[in-house]
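Late entry, written up from scratch paper. The run itself happened at the end of the previous shift, but nothing got recorded in the book at the time, so transcribing now.
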Amino acid sequence: MLRILPLAALIALPLAFGAQARTVAVTGQNGGTINHQHDCSRGSGQAQCSNATTATGPNGKTYSKNRLRTTTSDGTSTTTVDRTGPNGQTNSRTRKLVVTP
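Output as recorded:
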């Protein structure tokens, strides 16, 4: 578990700044890799941010997670998360939040 924390810190640190697109790639001591892409756009009363993460283990199996969050000026935020596991299994969920005064 201690080896995972530095990788998570390397991915999370660049995500704390700005809204420009950015990519982080990390290769572990065992040859596994993590690639993370983040991009945001704003305009027409909404903000849309996407995150795509792909992890490949030293055995070549891949896991991916894609998240799309859209927030509109009326207080609505919709987040969709799609995951694909190392054996091809998939999972998707959508969550919608509405903030009212």
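The first helix runs from residue 4 to 15.
(Scratch paper discarded after transcription.)
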